[in-house]
Amino acid sequence: QVHLVESGGELVQPGGSLRLSCAASGFTFSNYAMTWYRQAPGKERELVAGISVSSITRYADSVKGRFTISRDNAKNTVYLQMNSLKPEDTAVYYCRRSYASDYWGQGTQVTVSS
Fold it and tell me: Are 6 and 97 in contact (CB under 8 A)?
């Protein structure tokens, strides 16, 4: 079955960096777009970034120029490099198979605070 496991979230100071990873299993990873979403307390879950099977990327306006999504098909893993982090980036970050599927990871907490 499809399994997505995020890692890399932690407490970081404003201006800092983190790299999130999402390890996928149970499907042919290279055949699917992969996405990162986030959900802050009291807010709806929102798309942060996506990467197609041909590595075409897209980003939310709020993270353009600061975040980079990438994928390693040999490792069945998608990454989210987050730089210049802001307190408003604080959220639980989720990996999802494609843009419209029921397959989500369990989430990893990112907290940006001094």
Answer: no
Give the closest residue to 78 by CA, choosing from 101, 45, 52, 59. Answer: 52
Core vs surface per residue 28-62: b (16+ CB within 10 A) or e: ebeebbbbbbbeeeeeeeeebbbbeeeeeeebeee
Question: Could you give the CA distance from residue 89 to residue 94 in angstroms, rounded to a whole number?
Answer: 13
CA distance 39 to 50: 16
- 53 torsion bin: left (phi>0), alpha (psi -120 to 50), beta (else): alpha
Query: H/E element holding 72?
Result: strand 67-72
Express each pLDDT in 70-107 by its tens digit: 999 999 999 999 999 999 999 999 999 998 888 999 99
Distance CA 93, CA 105 (A): 9
